Amino acid sequence: KAGVTQTPRYLIKTRGQQVTLSCSPISGHRSVSWYQQTPGQGLQFLFEYFSETQRNKGNFPGRFSGRQFSNSRSEMNVSTLELGDSALYLCASSLIRGQGVYGYTFGSGTRLTVV
Amino acid sequence: AQSVTQLGSHVSVSEGALVLLRCNYSSSVPPYLFWYVQYPNQGLQLLLKYTTGATLVKGINGFEAEFKKSETSFHLTKPSAHMSDAAEYFCAVSDLDLGSNFGNEKLTFGTGTRLTIIP
Questions:
Q1: A58–chain B nearest CA distance, Å
Q2: Mapping DSSP to helix (H, G, I), strand (E, B) and coil, where does residue B25 land?
Q3: B25: which strand partners?
Q4: Between A and B, how many CB-CB pairs are < 8 A?
Q5: Using CB atoms and an 8 Å cut-off, which of residues 71-100 of chain B contact chain A?
Q6: Is the CB of B46 less than 8 angstroms away from the CB of A103?
Q7: Average per-residue pLDDT for chain A
């Protein structure tokens, strides 16, 4: 059974550019959440999607957005990149909402470097 | 709002010694608590979780944690450390309130504890 797949694994972008990260959840999982991990701020919740709808959003500026497709795959987009957006972006999936209580399955992340 | 405090950003123990990683939480609803482990350049792996029932929770790789409501703690322990345990460990609390029709589901993480094993 394949795990949560995040692509690409590594990405280097220039300030001001935009970037799109992809997450394919475990087959059958319908809830996808995104987290940002930085040395300074730690792990912070970005947003959660379920049935193609954003259900919850963290305290991030509007430059951070996402979406979920009918096959539960999710993308997140960051526009007008800033140096501070350099981070490991983690995607997590669960079977249904509320299953997060029982532990998400995380992907290996996308390491974004903004130069 | 939920919060998690992990005491000690770095912990070093000798191989074969007891591992104790501390976690205290605050929660406005019955807490759902987790420990995750992260190896270099990898995502998070669930070690164990407390939802309801028995307060002593056993996880993978010989780890266990005890939920103590009176102390608002959920410390992680392992009787005998192994070199392969070297990693970063995160305690987390779920924001999920099952009484609210699954609203506001997210994890709030502690700042992490880096565990080093001394040969």
A1: 9
A2: strand
A3: B4
A4: 69
A5: 90, 92, 94, 96, 98
A6: yes
A7: 92
Nearest in space to B63 (alpha carbons), one of B50, A13, B100: B50
Supply the pLDDT for residue B5: 95
Pseudo-torsion of CA B19, A105, A80, A19, nearest 10°?
120
CA distance B72 to chain A (A): 18
Contact B45, B111 (CB under 8 A): no
Distance of residue A25 Cα from the nearest chain B Cα, in angstroms: 14
Residue owning tokens 């709808």: A53
Give the model's confidence band at B32: pLDDT under 50 very low, under 70 low, under 90 confident, else very high: confident
B53 shares contact with chain A (CB less than 8 Å): no
What confidence score (pLDDT) does residue B54 get? 83
Q: What are the residues facing B19 on neighbouring strands?
A: B78
Instruction: Report the residue of chain B nearest A41, measured CA to CA.
Output: B111
How far is the C-alpha of B41 from the C-alpha of B115, rounded, in Å?
A: 16
Residue A106 main-chain phi, psi, to 5 deg: -95, 150
Binary contact (A92, B106; C-beta < 8 A):
no
* Residue the block writes with tokens 């307060």: B55
Closest CA to A75 of A12, A5, A13, A15: A5
Residues A6-33 have a mean pLDDT of 95
Strands (E), chain A: 5-7, 10-13, 19-24, 31-38, 42-50, 53-57, 64-68, 74-78, 87-94, 105-106, 110-114
